[in-house]
Amino acid sequence: MLSGPSVNAHTIPAVQPGRWVKLHTDETFAAVLEHLKPLPPYAMLLGLCADGWPLIFDLLDHTLGSLAILGESAAGNTAALASMLASVVELNRPEDVNVHVITSRTEAFAGLLERRGFGRVYPVDDMASRILVEEFSKLAGERQAGMAVDRVQVLAIDGLAALLAGMDQGQVNALKWLLRVGPQTGIRLIIAHSGGEAPAGCRQCVDLCLTQINQASNPPAAAGRAGENPHVDPAPPVPNLGYVVRSGSDQRAIEILNPPNFESSI
Protein backbone atom coordinates (compact mmCIF):
# COMPACT_ATOMS: atom_id res chain seq x y z
CA MET A 1 0.00 0.00 0.00
CA LEU A 2 1.42 3.36 -1.04
CA SER A 3 1.50 6.03 1.63
CA GLY A 4 3.00 9.46 2.15
CA PRO A 5 3.46 11.52 5.30
CA SER A 6 1.22 14.49 5.98
CA VAL A 7 2.07 17.66 4.07
CA ASN A 8 3.00 20.68 6.19
CA ALA A 9 1.71 23.32 3.79
CA HIS A 10 -1.60 24.44 2.38
CA THR A 11 -3.07 21.34 0.81
CA ILE A 12 -6.36 20.35 -0.71
CA PRO A 13 -8.12 19.66 1.63
CA ALA A 14 -6.39 22.40 3.63
CA VAL A 15 -4.42 21.64 6.78
CA GLN A 16 -2.43 23.82 9.15
CA PRO A 17 0.85 24.88 7.52
CA GLY A 18 4.18 24.17 9.16
CA ARG A 19 7.24 26.39 9.48
CA TRP A 20 7.83 27.21 5.85
CA VAL A 21 10.15 29.91 4.59
CA LYS A 22 7.93 32.74 3.36
CA LEU A 23 7.73 32.61 -0.43
CA HIS A 24 6.96 35.34 -2.90
CA THR A 25 5.32 34.95 -6.28
CA ASP A 26 8.21 36.56 -8.19
CA GLU A 27 10.63 33.75 -7.27
CA THR A 28 11.76 31.32 -9.95
CA PHE A 29 10.47 27.78 -10.16
CA ALA A 30 13.82 26.36 -9.04
CA ALA A 31 14.05 28.78 -6.10
CA VAL A 32 10.59 27.90 -4.86
CA LEU A 33 11.28 24.17 -5.00
CA GLU A 34 14.57 24.68 -3.21
CA HIS A 35 12.74 26.47 -0.39
CA LEU A 36 10.20 23.65 -0.14
CA LYS A 37 12.55 20.68 -0.02
CA PRO A 38 12.25 18.17 1.41
CA LEU A 39 8.58 17.58 0.67
CA PRO A 40 6.92 14.22 1.30
CA PRO A 41 6.57 11.78 -1.60
CA TYR A 42 3.63 11.95 -3.99
CA ALA A 43 3.39 15.75 -3.78
CA MET A 44 2.54 18.05 -6.71
CA LEU A 45 2.95 21.82 -6.42
CA LEU A 46 -0.06 23.65 -7.87
CA GLY A 47 1.21 27.16 -7.16
CA LEU A 48 1.54 29.84 -4.49
CA CYS A 49 -1.32 31.32 -2.46
CA ALA A 50 -1.71 35.03 -1.76
CA ASP A 51 -0.06 34.61 1.64
CA GLY A 52 3.05 33.17 0.01
CA TRP A 53 2.50 29.58 1.10
CA PRO A 54 2.62 26.72 -1.41
CA LEU A 55 -0.54 24.86 -2.42
CA ILE A 56 0.16 21.13 -2.57
CA PHE A 57 -1.89 18.43 -4.30
CA ASP A 58 -1.50 14.99 -2.68
CA LEU A 59 -1.35 12.42 -5.49
CA LEU A 60 -2.37 9.67 -3.07
CA ASP A 61 -5.55 11.36 -1.83
CA HIS A 62 -8.25 9.77 -3.98
CA THR A 63 -10.93 12.02 -2.48
CA LEU A 64 -9.52 14.89 -4.57
CA GLY A 65 -10.57 13.06 -7.73
CA SER A 66 -9.22 13.96 -11.14
CA LEU A 67 -7.91 17.49 -11.83
CA ALA A 68 -9.03 19.89 -14.58
CA ILE A 69 -7.20 23.05 -15.67
CA LEU A 70 -9.60 25.43 -17.42
CA GLY A 71 -9.12 28.72 -19.23
CA GLU A 72 -9.71 30.65 -22.41
CA SER A 73 -7.67 29.96 -25.53
CA ALA A 74 -4.02 31.04 -25.16
CA ALA A 75 -4.57 31.46 -21.41
CA GLY A 76 -1.43 29.51 -20.56
CA ASN A 77 -2.98 26.14 -19.73
CA THR A 78 -0.06 24.27 -21.28
CA ALA A 79 2.43 26.20 -19.17
CA ALA A 80 0.31 25.64 -16.05
CA LEU A 81 0.21 21.91 -16.73
CA ALA A 82 3.95 21.84 -17.44
CA SER A 83 4.65 23.64 -14.16
CA MET A 84 2.70 21.08 -12.15
CA LEU A 85 4.29 18.12 -13.93
CA ALA A 86 7.76 19.64 -13.48
CA SER A 87 7.15 19.67 -9.72
CA VAL A 88 6.13 16.00 -9.83
CA VAL A 89 9.36 15.15 -11.64
CA GLU A 90 11.52 17.19 -9.26
CA LEU A 91 9.85 16.09 -6.03
CA ASN A 92 9.37 12.37 -6.73
CA ARG A 93 11.23 9.33 -8.01
CA PRO A 94 10.31 7.44 -11.21
CA GLU A 95 10.11 4.31 -9.05
CA ASP A 96 7.17 5.93 -7.25
CA VAL A 97 5.43 8.02 -9.92
CA ASN A 98 5.19 7.68 -13.70
CA VAL A 99 3.98 10.58 -15.85
CA HIS A 100 2.46 10.27 -19.35
CA VAL A 101 1.41 13.29 -21.41
CA ILE A 102 -0.96 13.46 -24.37
CA THR A 103 -0.48 16.78 -26.18
CA SER A 104 -0.15 18.62 -29.49
CA ARG A 105 2.93 20.32 -28.00
CA THR A 106 5.15 17.26 -27.73
CA GLU A 107 8.33 19.34 -27.87
CA ALA A 108 7.24 21.21 -24.74
CA PHE A 109 7.14 18.10 -22.54
CA ALA A 110 9.52 15.53 -24.04
CA GLY A 111 12.73 16.74 -22.38
CA LEU A 112 11.02 17.19 -19.03
CA LEU A 113 9.92 13.58 -18.75
CA GLU A 114 12.25 11.48 -20.85
CA ARG A 115 15.53 12.81 -19.50
CA ARG A 116 14.50 11.64 -16.04
CA GLY A 117 12.88 8.37 -17.07
CA PHE A 118 9.49 9.37 -15.72
CA GLY A 119 7.36 8.52 -18.74
CA ARG A 120 6.50 9.34 -22.33
CA VAL A 121 4.84 12.02 -24.43
CA TYR A 122 2.18 11.06 -27.00
CA PRO A 123 0.89 13.25 -29.88
CA VAL A 124 -2.79 13.99 -29.27
CA ASP A 125 -3.80 12.97 -32.81
CA ASP A 126 -1.87 9.68 -32.73
CA MET A 127 -3.71 6.39 -32.27
CA ALA A 128 -1.20 5.58 -29.52
CA SER A 129 -2.83 8.26 -27.35
CA ARG A 130 -6.23 6.64 -27.61
CA ILE A 131 -4.74 3.19 -26.98
CA LEU A 132 -3.00 4.59 -23.89
CA VAL A 133 -6.38 5.63 -22.45
CA GLU A 134 -7.71 2.13 -23.07
CA GLU A 135 -4.66 0.57 -21.42
CA PHE A 136 -5.01 2.73 -18.33
CA SER A 137 -8.70 1.89 -18.17
CA LYS A 138 -7.79 -1.80 -18.19
CA LEU A 139 -5.14 -1.22 -15.50
CA ALA A 140 -7.68 0.57 -13.30
CA GLY A 141 -10.01 -2.40 -13.61
CA GLU A 142 -7.23 -4.81 -12.66
CA ARG A 143 -6.31 -2.71 -9.64
CA GLN A 144 -9.94 -2.55 -8.59
CA ALA A 145 -9.99 -6.34 -8.74
CA GLY A 146 -7.09 -6.60 -6.31
CA MET A 147 -3.85 -6.04 -8.24
CA ALA A 148 -1.26 -4.30 -6.06
CA VAL A 149 -0.62 -0.60 -6.74
CA ASP A 150 3.15 -0.46 -7.26
CA ARG A 151 3.36 3.20 -8.31
CA VAL A 152 1.16 6.18 -9.04
CA GLN A 153 0.44 6.72 -12.73
CA VAL A 154 -0.23 10.31 -13.81
CA LEU A 155 -1.96 10.75 -17.18
CA ALA A 156 -1.98 14.39 -18.30
CA ILE A 157 -4.07 15.43 -21.30
CA ASP A 158 -3.13 18.79 -22.82
CA GLY A 159 -6.01 19.53 -25.19
CA LEU A 160 -9.06 17.53 -24.11
CA ALA A 161 -11.19 18.58 -27.08
CA ALA A 162 -8.59 17.44 -29.61
CA LEU A 163 -8.31 14.03 -27.96
CA LEU A 164 -12.07 13.51 -27.81
CA ALA A 165 -12.43 14.49 -31.46
CA GLY A 166 -10.45 11.40 -32.53
CA MET A 167 -12.08 8.91 -30.15
CA ASP A 168 -14.86 6.42 -30.79
CA GLN A 169 -17.63 6.09 -28.22
CA GLY A 170 -15.97 3.18 -26.45
CA GLN A 171 -12.79 5.18 -25.95
CA VAL A 172 -14.76 8.21 -24.71
CA ASN A 173 -16.51 5.97 -22.19
CA ALA A 174 -13.15 4.56 -21.08
CA LEU A 175 -11.83 8.09 -20.49
CA LYS A 176 -14.90 9.11 -18.48
CA TRP A 177 -14.62 5.96 -16.39
CA LEU A 178 -10.95 6.70 -15.72
CA LEU A 179 -11.73 10.26 -14.66
CA ARG A 180 -14.23 8.90 -12.14
CA VAL A 181 -12.47 5.74 -10.89
CA GLY A 182 -8.79 6.29 -11.67
CA PRO A 183 -7.84 8.22 -8.49
CA GLN A 184 -9.10 5.33 -6.35
CA THR A 185 -6.70 2.98 -8.12
CA GLY A 186 -3.54 5.12 -8.14
CA ILE A 187 -4.18 6.53 -11.62
CA ARG A 188 -4.33 10.32 -11.49
CA LEU A 189 -5.79 12.15 -14.49
CA ILE A 190 -5.07 15.83 -15.18
CA ILE A 191 -6.89 17.42 -18.12
CA ALA A 192 -6.33 20.87 -19.61
CA HIS A 193 -9.15 22.42 -21.62
CA SER A 194 -9.34 25.83 -23.31
CA GLY A 195 -12.57 27.65 -24.12
CA GLY A 196 -14.24 27.60 -27.52
CA GLU A 197 -15.99 24.96 -29.59
CA ALA A 198 -15.60 21.45 -28.16
CA PRO A 199 -17.14 17.99 -28.54
CA ALA A 200 -20.24 17.37 -26.47
CA GLY A 201 -18.35 15.02 -24.15
CA CYS A 202 -15.90 17.74 -23.13
CA ARG A 203 -18.09 19.32 -20.46
CA GLN A 204 -19.03 15.89 -19.16
CA CYS A 205 -15.35 15.04 -18.68
CA VAL A 206 -14.67 18.34 -16.91
CA ASP A 207 -17.64 17.80 -14.60
CA LEU A 208 -16.17 14.46 -13.54
CA CYS A 209 -13.09 16.25 -12.14
CA LEU A 210 -13.57 16.88 -8.43
CA THR A 211 -10.73 19.43 -8.34
CA GLN A 212 -10.75 22.27 -10.87
CA ILE A 213 -8.34 25.12 -11.54
CA ASN A 214 -9.99 28.04 -13.35
CA GLN A 215 -8.49 31.11 -14.90
CA ALA A 216 -9.88 34.11 -13.02
CA SER A 217 -9.55 37.86 -13.49
CA ASN A 218 -10.76 38.58 -9.94
CA PRO A 219 -10.08 35.67 -7.54
CA PRO A 220 -12.05 35.80 -4.28
CA ALA A 221 -10.29 38.03 -1.78
CA ALA A 222 -10.59 35.45 1.01
CA ALA A 223 -9.25 32.50 -0.90
CA GLY A 224 -5.89 31.39 0.38
CA ARG A 225 -5.29 34.72 2.17
CA ALA A 226 -3.40 35.36 5.35
CA GLY A 227 -5.64 35.81 8.35
CA GLU A 228 -7.61 32.61 7.83
CA ASN A 229 -4.81 30.79 9.64
CA PRO A 230 -3.22 32.11 12.85
CA HIS A 231 0.14 30.55 11.97
CA VAL A 232 0.58 32.69 8.85
CA ASP A 233 1.89 36.24 9.12
CA PRO A 234 -0.22 38.90 7.39
CA ALA A 235 0.78 39.61 3.79
CA PRO A 236 -0.11 42.47 1.42
CA PRO A 237 -3.19 41.68 -0.68
CA VAL A 238 -2.54 40.35 -4.16
CA PRO A 239 -5.20 41.70 -6.54
CA ASN A 240 -4.89 39.04 -9.24
CA LEU A 241 -3.22 35.66 -8.82
CA GLY A 242 -4.50 34.32 -12.12
CA TYR A 243 -6.23 31.09 -11.07
CA VAL A 244 -8.71 29.79 -8.52
CA VAL A 245 -8.51 26.20 -7.25
CA ARG A 246 -11.76 24.59 -6.15
CA SER A 247 -12.09 21.20 -4.47
CA GLY A 248 -15.29 20.48 -2.60
CA SER A 249 -15.93 23.41 -0.27
CA ASP A 250 -12.29 24.51 -0.34
CA GLN A 251 -11.37 27.41 -2.65
CA ARG A 252 -8.04 29.21 -2.96
CA ALA A 253 -6.54 31.78 -5.31
CA ILE A 254 -3.07 30.89 -6.57
CA GLU A 255 -0.36 32.04 -8.91
CA ILE A 256 1.02 29.22 -11.02
CA LEU A 257 4.78 29.35 -11.47
CA ASN A 258 6.37 29.46 -14.91
CA PRO A 259 7.90 26.02 -15.46
CA PRO A 260 11.64 25.72 -16.12
CA ASN A 261 12.73 26.25 -19.72
CA PHE A 262 9.29 27.28 -20.86
CA GLU A 263 8.29 30.56 -22.45
CA SER A 264 5.53 32.47 -20.69
CA SER A 265 3.57 32.53 -23.97
CA ILE A 266 2.97 28.77 -23.93
Keywords:
266 residues, 11-stranded mixed sheet, alpha/beta, disordered C terminus, Rossmann fold, 29% helix, 7 helices, disordered N terminus
What does this molecule look like?
The structure is a single chain. The chain has 266 residues and is an alpha/beta fold. The protein has one domain: P-loop containing nucleotide triphosphate hydrolases (Rossmann fold). Helices cover 29% and strands 23% of the residues. The chain is built from seven helices and eleven strands. An eleven-stranded mixed β-sheet has the order 1-3-2-11-10-9-4-8-7-5-6. Strand 5, helix 3 and strand 6 form a beta-alpha-beta unit. Helix 2 packs parallel to helix 3. The termini are far apart.
Main pleated sheet: 11 strands, mixed
Beta-strand percent range: 15-25%
- According to CATH, what is the class? Alpha Beta
CATH structural fold name: Rossmann fold
Query: What sequence of helices (H) and strands (E) makes up the elements?
Result: EHEEEHEHEHEHHEHEEE
Percent in helix: 25-40%
Radius of gyration: 18 Å
Distance between the termini: 38 Å
Number of domains: 1
Question: What's the rounded overall pLDDT mean?
Answer: 78
Shape: globular
Total number of strands: 11
* Oligomer classification: single chain
Question: What's the arrangement of secondary structure elements?
Answer:
Blueprint: E1 10-11, H1 29-36, E2 43-49, E3 54-58, E4 67-71, H2 77-91, E5 97-103, H3 106-114, E6 121-123, H4 127-144, E7 152-158, H5 160-165, H6 169-181, E8 187-194, H7 201-207, E9 211-215, E10 243-247, E11 250-255
Parallel strand pairs: 1-3, 4-8, 4-9, 5-6, 5-7, 7-8
Antiparallel strand pairs: 2-3, 2-11, 9-10, 10-11
